[in-house]
Amino acid sequence: MTSQTKFEEWLDLTGLKHEKHQKDAVKWCLQREQAARNKGGIIADEMGLGKTIEILGTVYSNPLPNTLIVLPYSLLGQWESIITTLFHTKPLVYHGGQRKRLTSDQIIQFPIVLTTYGLVSKKLLSRDVINPLYTIQWDRVIYDEAHHLRNKNTKVFTGGKKLQSAITWLLTGTPIQNSVGDLYNLYNLLGFTSSAFIKTNIEQLINEYMLRRTIKVAGITLPPCHATTVEVSWKFPKEKTLAEDIHVPLTFSNVGILQKMLGGEDDIEEAEANEIGANNGGGSETFKHLAKARKVCVLPLLVRKTMHESSKIDSVVSTVLARKNNGKPKIIFCYYHAEIDEIATLLQGKGMRVLKFDGRTGKKERGEILVDTCDALIGQIDAMNEGLNLQAYKEVYIVSPHWNPAIEDQAVARCHRIGQTEEVQVFRFIMTGFEGYEQLIDAPPALTLDQYICRVQEFKRDVVKKMLIEPEKKESEKKPVKKTKKRVLVYEN
After folding, report:
1. What does the pLDDT average to over 460-476?
2. pTM to 2 decimals?
3. Which residues does the UniProt record annotate as the domain Helicase C-terminal (predicted)?
């Protein structure tokens, strides 16, 4: 029995659909696992095409003694459930208190081990105990949501480099999020040095080691996804005055100024994530001001405890309530716990059944939420944008723009993906500027942070477009790639 036939047999045994694009993916993956060098690669199919099935089909078709799968913490339960169901065996979940008692010899007794990026980043588990994940020679390491490794200056990236593996797989629908450097760092984990991009044609590296198909190229038709931008004006004079005072020193004269001030796009995003987690102090003065601007645009109470009005929260809630009885479950993506709680309280007060998903949500509760569709699911965008299958929901509300547009795309893809049967509506809320208010220097009229981030998003999307040129032909029509100056990320049969 060939490996490809074995995959088809697995599809029949598990009751999964025979999707051509997934069969092609497993065929490509099996070829990459048999390569003479740099075994593995990047599976960068568009979000919603089923990268999980593609890589698990590869694992089933080419069984090896020890496979490690590295995940965001929020996806541990989902992967454990999928593997238990499809393989009829439980993987070892190397996470939590029990892991401290496990030795490397005990760990390798399990053919599939799940762990988190957080644990991979830890060199020492205690004062004298080296992380056993580093000491094992893995047959295969799989990184899900591999864009977590895009920054080579992080502990996560360093930890990933310490893992020893014969085969390395990187799964991400967004291989470039901020700059081309993201892609270089992912290739570094595959064993390529920076010099490889100088000595070797980048097209050759991309076409040989990366699989990327869009939903269109895969020949799949999804229901339409309609996006609406809701521009929110400042309703309350005191709120507007406070916002003006905070925003004016942040003279957004061009898209690159804050990146330069903070040392790069990744630094802004990471610093803001840290602020959201800590909600207090740390970072440069510029960033502290930036964090205030973010907060005042969504919930002024986070900046001034006596300020209870919020134009944006009012707009979000009124938009949701206007569509309350249309029978379409809603997902609302937020940043702060207080923001989530405020929206939840207001919607519950109008009779809506609401569930919350954020850093406060336990593992068991997360699992229950994923199978219990409610009127409105409210969560933190950085906790809920990855890997979750939420096709039961039909409307997406993004309360504030994200520095990284790929994060928003991933959030929308939680419900606009294979299996969605209805049109999806997306609402993005943006605070408008301060008309008639002059800045302190010669610059355009004052922008809100929301408006500035939208400009940054355009800049980043332009970077991605220059690097990732979407193919026009469907998979069945593809021909060998001819030499060209354009950089194309596409799997060619």
Report:
1. 59
2. 0.76
3. 312-489
